[in-house]
Amino acid sequence: MRLVLLGAPGAGKGTQAQTISQKLGVPHIASGDLFREAQQKGTELGRLAKSYMERGALVPDEITVRMILERISAPDCLRGFVLDGFPRTLEQAEALDRALATEGKAIDKAVYIKVSNEELIRRLSGRWICRNCQMPYNIISSPPRVRGRCDACGGELYQRPDDSEETVKRRLDVYFAQTAPLINYYLGAGKLVEVNGEQAIGEVERELLRVIARD
Ligand code: AMP
């Protein structure tokens, strides 16, 4: 199963991608996590990505596409993957389709997790993430059991620098200008399925598993 998760920053893609990748037994591949990892390791890719991420802008397609195509060609992706945060532009979606087509493969479904603007802003400004396993929490809607610590692995929780109010606004603007058109792209390809992302996390997960199991 090759899945793409679509939705604005804060729609819950990361949370849902983690659970469905476990259920389907395929890797969860998050472009933002790969960029943050590269930054932590101090690689050239990390250094390049940093300047864009800090501003809430998109990393250029060429760099992003190369990173993702390399990742999905790894042996653990043979049975599929769940993409989270990629593609984010039409060019990225087309490059992904072209690369898969050369191997006789294709994306099976693009799941759009739909959440209203007001809810997105509320969620992003309260978001804390585990430094160790990337599990997201929200100080209002899904706080950790112990303050500042991850329920799953005990790791330290931190607030992403690009979750500040101004950068959040910029990231949402970028999403509406560049990424939202992908909804039509996958709709046109007959691959789009939609779930209501404003339900409780478990409900979103159940709906998501239902729509991806449907033919
Ligand atoms: P995310 O963790 O998905 O919110 O991504 C954080 C930041 O990484 C974004 O604001 C972009 O600067 C960069 N980024 C992640 N994925 C992509 C992508 N597919 N294309 C371009 N930039 C990306």
Uncertain spans: none
Q: Note the beta-strand portion.
A: 5-15%
**Approximately how much helix is present in the residues?**
40-55%
Overall SS class: alpha/beta
Number of domains: 2
How does the overall form come out from the CA principal axes? globular
At CATH level 2, the architecture of the largest domain is: 3-Layer(aba) Sandwich
Number of helices: 9
- Radius of gyration over alpha carbons? 16 Å
CATH-assigned homologous superfamily of the largest domain: P-loop containing nucleotide triphosphate hydrolases
Mean pLDDT: 94
Q: How would you summarize the topology of this molecule?
A:
Layout: E1 2-6, H1 13-24, E2 28-30, H2 31-41, H3 44-55, H4 61-72, E3 81-84, H5 90-101, E4 109-114, H6 117-125, E5 127-130, E6 136-138, E7 157-158, H7 165-179, H8 181-188, E8 192-196, H9 201-213
Parallel strand pairs: 1-3, 1-4, 2-3, 4-8
Antiparallel strand pairs: 5-6, 5-7
Helix pairs in contact: 1-9, 2-3, 4-5
Bound molecules: adenosine monophosphate.
